[in-house]
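Narrative of accomplishments. A recurring question from our advisory board has been how the design workflow behaves on a single, concrete structure rather than in aggregate. To address it, we present the structure tokens for one chain from the evaluation set, followed by the sequence designed for it. No filtering or post-editing was applied between the two.
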């Protein structure tokens, strides 16, 4: 198949870019792929990770207008499927298809929980013919919006299988790890993590791998809470898992995610995880009592209670932890993605409308 992936903007430093690069590489074995990004990434180094078989077109940051780039590419493409990563490009692709009398399928590929995604507007989203869901939570959100189940393809996200293992620390100090953007109050909600750490009675240490504008404020907060000696900020770290040798658990305190890749990366290395109940992603990955624990952010003491119970982690088997995420392996993911796209194309070729939109979203 000929596939055209389009996005308005990617920062270049997030998990979405990692998933996109891996997806392009796997799909390129059987498909002809073009990637168009309207506005150049702030950090363009991630583009070097894209497979050389993929044709990459991008605008200039703060320079060349991006709309002519999309219009020219869609006018001259003969793609079977256009996969749009945000609702703006969905709207653009469907509008230009009509204007240019093209026949490609427009498929959405959103990487956040739909109610929380910053670049998603439901009326524009539902102009797509079909939708790739990266979690069962997002699949449920599409169903709630009235999308027929046949027009939704559940792919999850991939993780690389590795023989690397994090040694589960046997010392008296419980070693906790956080990997991600440092954001105290927003999506990542690290204020909750630091506040919970201050309530833990047992010896504990937190290693924080990540950067962000809230880093100075985060350091101040740990001093105010009296836990500065228990927290090490490592900053943004390339190949973070080569630095994490010994630990007891990875923790997230996010208010929302699409599909938390940090969880998969930890579990494939045999490291248990702690994660809030999320609308999207967590219930696909975390199996309480087998590979980690889930907790409620509505309870200000929930995480602290778990951290005060070392037996919850001591009883977990590292091999079982690794096996728990086998279904997210890279080969299985690429096979699912190809199957989903083939099904969408077949549905379009049959003459059946790809998506029977409800009147509420027919704007």
């Amino acid at each position: 198949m000929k596939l055209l992936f389009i996005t308005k903007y990617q920062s270049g430093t997030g998990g979405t870019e990692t998933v996109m690069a891996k997806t392009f590489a796997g799909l390129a074995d059987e498909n002809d792929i073009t990637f168009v990004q309207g506005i150049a990434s702030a950090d363009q180094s991630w583009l070097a990770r894209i497979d050389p078989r993929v044709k990459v077109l991008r605008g200039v940051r703060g320079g060349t207008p991006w709309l002519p780039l999309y219009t020219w590419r869609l006018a001259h493409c003969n793609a079977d499927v256009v996969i749009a990563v945000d609702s703006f490009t969905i709207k653009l692709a469907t509008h230009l298809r009509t204007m240019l009398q093209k026949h490609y399928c427009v498929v959405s590929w959103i990487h956040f929980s739909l109610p929380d995604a910053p670049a998603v507007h439901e009326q524009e989203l539902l102009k797509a013919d079909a939708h790739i869901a990266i979690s069962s939570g997002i699949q449920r959100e599409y169903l709630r919006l009235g999308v027929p189940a046949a027009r939704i393809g559940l792919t999850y996200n991939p993780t690389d299988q590795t023989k690397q293992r994090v040694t589960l620390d046997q010392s008296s100090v419980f070693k906790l790890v956080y990997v991600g953007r440092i954001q105290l109050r927003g999506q990542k909600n690290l204020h909750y993590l630091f506040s919970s750490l201050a309530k833990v009675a047992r010896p504990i240490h937190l290693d924080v791998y990540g950067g962000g504008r809230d880093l100075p404020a985060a350091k101040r907060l740990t001093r105010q809470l009296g836990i500065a000696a228990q927290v090490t900020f490592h900053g943004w770290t390339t190949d973070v898992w080569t630095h994490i040798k010994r630990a007891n658990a990875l923790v997230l305190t996010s208010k929302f995610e699409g599909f938390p890749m940090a969880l998969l990366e930890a579990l494939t290395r045999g490291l248990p995880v702690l994660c809030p109940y999320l609308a999207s992603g967590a219930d696909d990955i975390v199996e309480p009592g087998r590979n980690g624990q889930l907790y409620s952010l509505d309870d200000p003491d929930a995480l602290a209670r778990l951290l005060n119970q070392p037996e919850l982690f001591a009883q977990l088997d590292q091999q079982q932890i690794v096996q728990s995420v086998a279904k997210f392996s890279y080969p299985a993911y690429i096979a699912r993605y190809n199957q989903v796209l083939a099904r969408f194309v077949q549905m379009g070729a049959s003459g059946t409308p790809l998506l029977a939109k409800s009147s509420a979203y027919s704007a």
